[in-house]
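Example 9 (inverse folding). The structure is encoded as follows.
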């Protein structure tokens, strides 16, 4: 579920409802939505740090047995958004940023440990709302979007389920869709998105992203 800009967890059509006026002023010469750091009460800059913590749940049938694997992203091992920008975009446009991922993630299936390593970066795309009406407005609504995972960037040791079993995926690059709440910083994935992976030493089928819940800290929203 982030360094310097977690607000872009998303891609899709977004309504203007949720825009909060901070005061009246004339329209921008170059109107755009800019990422806004609620922690500093100022537009996001390259010196800011925004991390994402929470969990991702993967479900699959491994060696003939349905399993769920939960991967945790903690404050000590978070997701983080790139600090290089971009930090703004035109209304209705797509804003894309790089997402740094920890190289090793703590994943479990019940009492079983499932070592997972990740190669990155991933990226986050989201579509910006329609134009604001007043300079300084904040958009605190919900954005839809995607996290883009490169092919073969996730390596899992599934030996806890079957001796010698490993898997790499997704087999082809995958855009996992979801939503970002710019008021709370909560990211939620669309449930049960399927993907393929390449196993070795066992049979792995019916792989899917069962759920994902990540929270940005600090909250990032949009300012017009």
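The amino acid assigned to each position is listed next.
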């Amino acid at each position: 579920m982030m360094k310097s800009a977690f607000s872009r967890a998303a891609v899709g059509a977004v309504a203007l409802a949720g825009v909060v006026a901070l005061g009246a002023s004339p329209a921008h010469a170059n109107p755009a939505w800019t990422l806004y750091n609620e922690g500093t009460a100022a537009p996001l800059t390259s010196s800011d740090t925004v991390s994402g913590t929470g969990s991702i749940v993967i479900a699959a049938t491994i060696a003939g047995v349905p399993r769920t694997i939960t991967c945790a992203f903690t404050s000590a091992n978070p997701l983080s958004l790139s600090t290089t920008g971009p930090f703004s975009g035109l209304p209705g446009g797509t804003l894309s940023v790089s997402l740094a991922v920890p190289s090793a993630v703590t994943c479990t299936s019940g009492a079983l440990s499932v070592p997972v390593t990740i190669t990155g970066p991933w990226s986050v795309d989201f579509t910006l709302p329609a134009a604001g009406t007043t300079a300084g407005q904040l958009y605190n609504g919900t954005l839809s979007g995607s996290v883009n995972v490169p092919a073969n960037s996730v390596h899992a040791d599934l030996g806890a389920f079957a001796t010698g079993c490993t898997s790499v995926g997704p087999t082809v690059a995958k855009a996992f869709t979801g939503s970002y709440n710019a008021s709370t910083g909560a990211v939620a994935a669309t449930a049960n998105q399927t993907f393929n992976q390449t196993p070795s030493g066992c049979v792995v089928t019916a792989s899917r992203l069962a759920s994902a819940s990540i929270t940005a800290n600090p909250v990032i929203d949009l300012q017009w």
